[in-house]
Every structure is written in structure tokens, then in C-alpha cells.
Amino acid sequence: MASTTAEYALPVAAFESLILKLLNVLEMTQRPEGTSTHQAKQTLLQATNEFKESLSHAKELAHGLPGGELLIQEQDELINMLEQLKERKRCAAFICATCST
Description:
Blueprint: H1 12-30, H2 38-64, H3 72-99
Helix pairs in contact: 1-2
């Protein structure tokens, strides 16, 4: 059975929220009052934990994609191989088209 693109759809919102959550943590650490109060420390801890959980979830999603477990070099090699295969198919299609005319 052929795989569909929807089967491997990546929830972009899970990744977009990472930047906002990281910015939230950074803003909390840069406030003039810093983390001097117990409440500020608790708020920072909660924001940091939310970021860590979201990051962990995003990693799981990425590893769940076909090829997500590959190293960057392996991904580059796979992309190059697929580009070569695509070029060969184009050449074959061109040759077939010119031979039939």
C-alpha cells in the first residue's frame, strides 16, 4: 500500500511554539527583578519545564518521520541519491519522447 503525504504530516504548530516558549523563558531571566522572589522562580521553572516538554515532543515528532533518525550527512546523501534518480528518469523520459517522434 502506498504511503500518503498526510500520513507523514508534521504538526508545524508544535515547532512554531518552541520559539515563543524559549523567548518567554529568556524574557523572564532578563527582567530587572530577575528571579529574586519565590514567585518569579516558580514562574521561570514552569516556563522552562513547558519549553523542555515541548522540545521533547518536537524531537519525538521529528524522529517519527521517515528518515527522521538519519544523521544530517546521511540525509544529504539520500537527497543526492534521489536527485540523481530524478535526473535519470528525466533523461529517460526525454529519450523516449524524442525516439517516438
